[in-house]
Amino acid sequence: MLEMIDVAVHPTGPGGCRVAVAGDLDVETAPDVRAALHGVLAAYGHVTVDLSALRFCDCAGLGALLSAARTAEAHDADLILSAVPDFLARLLRLSHSREAFTYREEVLGDG
């Protein structure tokens, strides 16, 4: 099956980058996203994950994001989620995972 995810890293200055995640973050694509986020967190101290083009996220995708949050904490790096779609905000709320992340530019939807 064709994987439907794109992860693009854009340096934003010394020690920082923006990671744009586009497509479906699911059981099939989560390992690639996890590896990409772990790689940038090893190289950058300030990472913003742009989720504006994320179409879907299941529990495996949430696991990849939570794994990145743990890696950021271990590396004393900043991991910020940006443009969190409503469906992911709901998943974060229902899984009691909101506190694992720092957010930028938006109020989390879905209550």
UniProtKB/TrEMBL annotation:
UniProt cross-references to Gene3D superfamilies, sorted A to Z: STAS domain
Domain STAS stretches: 19-95
A Pfam family per the record: STAS_2
Top-rank taxon, per record: Bacteria
NCBIfam families: ant_ant_sig
Family listed: Belongs to the anti-sigma-factor antagonist family.
Name this polypeptide is given: Anti-sigma factor antagonist
